[in-house]
Amino acid sequence: MKNTYHIQIQEFFVVLKNLKKENKQDAFKDKFMELLPAAKQHIINSMETASKKELLKQQGYGVDDFVNDLYIYVYDHIDELDNQDDFHIWLFKVIDILIQDALVDEEFDDFFFKDIDEYSKQEWDAMEEEFSTDGDGDLLTLDELDDINLRKNNYELKDIFIEDNEKELTAKFEKELSKERINSHMQMVLRKLPTTTQSVFDLHTLRGFDAKKIAHIKRMQVEKVDGLLHEAMNLLRLSFKSRFLS
């Protein structure tokens, strides 16, 4: 699915360039909205996290506002691109820039992770209860959010248990835990991460970008991306072992 979307978005680029050349702004916007579903999910994830952490500079700034700003930017700047192969990465880079512009600086508290292997079952259950009852607020207003599939992140164990010697452990978790439980636990732990780390993990696991492309999107060194991915995966693995092997 990820690779298919990469191809589709390249095809959209040609159409959008022609519509811009012909000055058909309304048709451009309609076509632009057609290509958004997967990118929109990334926007929603980022905006939800920022809203829950109270990082948005402007209260009431929601996904509708962001998508409109994104459309205007793409319309104004798409002429800067010549190669359709670059459009997918460029679009996500623009999304990341606009998201960062909408946020205040985050003060990260790593207290949760210092004791991640010492939490009791009761403490884990309490954290999950708090996470599951934490409402989405008034941030999301797009009609497309009525489609539950748009908002599913579908995190899987294969995203974090990647070594051959972890296959037996992975099989144990998959036998004892439902897909929904696995996904919910990963979402909860990821929400505790700095927004940049969570964004890097999502771009890799949900959007299918490799470290080099993520580095371009996030405007950072590849080594930094690799480090953030390693950190996120390691903490997620520890959390599963702490919670479900105790």
Any descriptors?
Rna Polymerase Sigma Factor, Chain: A, mainly alpha, single chain, 246 residues
Output the number of helix runs: 12
Strand tally? 0
Order of helices and strands: HHHHHHHHHHHH
> What is the molecular shape?
elongated
Give the % helix.
55-70%
Model description:
By secondary structure, this protein is mostly helical. It folds into two domains: 2-101, Rna Polymerase Sigma Factor, Chain: A (Orthogonal Bundle); 111-244, no CATH class. 64% of the residues lie in helices and 0% in strands. It contains twelve helices and no strands. It has helices at residues 2-21, 25-34, 37-52, 63-77, 87-101, 111-114, 121-132, 167-176, 179-191, 195-205, 211-218, 222-244. Helix 1 packs antiparallel against helix 2 (25-34) and helix 11 crosses helix 12. The longest helix is centred in the C-terminal third of the chain and has 23 residues, at 222-244. The protein starts with a helix and ends with a helix. Residues 136-142 and 144-151 have low confidence and may be disordered.
Would you summarize the structure shown here?
The chain has 246 residues and is mainly α.
Task: Provide the fold topology.
Blueprint: H1 2-21, H2 25-34, H3 37-52, H4 63-77, H5 87-101, H6 111-114, H7 121-132, H8 167-176, H9 179-191, H10 195-205, H11 211-218, H12 222-244
Helix pairs in contact: 1-2, 3-5, 3-10, 4-5, 5-11, 9-12, 10-12, 11-12
